[in-house]
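Record 1 of the preview.
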Amino acid sequence: MKSDVTSVAEVIQRWTSRNGRWSSPRYIAGESYGTTRAAALAAHLTKHGVMVNGLALISAALMFQTLSFETGNDLPFVLYLPGYAATAAYHGKLATPPENLTAFLEEVETFAIEQYGPALMLGAALSDARRDELAEKLGAMTGLDALIWRRHGLRVDLSRFCRELLLDDNRIVGRMDSRFTGMLAQDSQDPGEQDPSFFFPYGPYASAIRDYLRRELGYEEERTYEVISFAVNETWTWTDEKDERFGYINAAADLRQALVRNPHLSVLFASGIYDLATPYFASKYTARHLGREPSIRKCVREAFYDAGHMMYLHPPSRAKLRDDLVVLITG
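->
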């Protein structure tokens, strides 16, 4: 990851020098892992005297502890809960459909922080009566039977939720965009069957980029365009050996460093409420743990969309994202 950041920084600095653009404003946009890179890149550039004016963090993945369902890490269970609730509401799986989705999700967020999280921290010290009470509440908020919550110690990870919500219909909900559903495949390792929202934009994306490269840039290439490479992903070096002992990747620390060094840096967190890859409540958590200093808080803005990981595929959300980016750039 460090080599990735330094190489992109070098490209930016060389291009800026060769094109005489050192007095021009600089904005960096990243999506998903691109937000990890963008935050680290802002810190790296600032450290070397290259100020960044703004960051657009689309479907942020900065604090990996918020996203990793691993034994001993209760944080993602808490932060995914509002996303589960939004998904259940969308698919009509709540016994009492919310009249106002925003107000409903605010209630779920409060429950997650004030009741659910503290209960998970108690571990085996949580009483049976309290466990059963919480299981009923969790079931009512997520559309899953309370028995499922009790059976799994009040911890339902993402994979289980996606498979359980529409199990009676033999359907699975999407991870990238939980509004999408697909046939429930047994024991399949194919990403498209594990996540029905994963491959749906592949064809349009590949066609659009190939047309753009050829028609607009005059670049001819007959090889297949890789929208995503699992081979590269599996061999990616996330940390240097000396950093591995520190556990989860935390690019939020890089972002805070950039904000401290550059008080004029504007940051937009853009999150889709149906994104279960980088859930919106995890982005909220990250944005609100950058620091309490007014100089930092005034620089950070959060925006939410009625869509998934790639909210720009939803026309109303694309229009809203465009408006939010205009605000980021124009102030």
